[in-house]
What does this fold into?
Amino acid sequence: MPSARKHRRKKMQQIPRDRKQLRRKEKKQKSTNIACKEIRNSWDASKTLQQNMKEMGLAFNANKALPIPRKLPLPKIIQNCDLETKSAVKKPEVLKAMEMEVELGEKEKQLRLPSDDVQFCTYMLDKYKENYKGMCRDRKNVFQLTPKQIRDKIRTFKRCKGQYKLYLDSKQAAHTDVEMKT
It folds into this structure.
């Protein structure tokens, strides 16, 4: 006969962990994630936010950095502020790198639509021009898009510079062929 006593599996003990390492890891995870590469590279974790910003020549509080009194014209204020900050800057390479980035300009995002959407938009534009209500009633509007949805889809198509340029070029080539034949 089996015994009346139930045998339960013993729970595994927790694996000993280095608490100091865990705290360091948590501290790293809690630290702010800085998007700007130049600021991230010259950041000193032992200093406060205001101290870091001041060393880099950046303003923590724009209202304190550029006070705008009603009496003085704006250009004089900006010139005075530039002189004060340049003397306190300990890490000028951050400012220079950020200025170079601004001069280069922002990279344009290459937006691309799926080929089905491009065919739909080109067909609708060729047939209806800007008549979105007419596009809404067309047989090729399989997904039953409303006029505003079609308008938005065509606007995104026009924002896709490469694809829209191909459409315009093909339309221009077709137009010149018609003129040559007549």
Notes: The chain has a mean pLDDT of 82. The chain has two domains: 36-104, 115-181. DSSP finds ten helices and no strands in the chain.
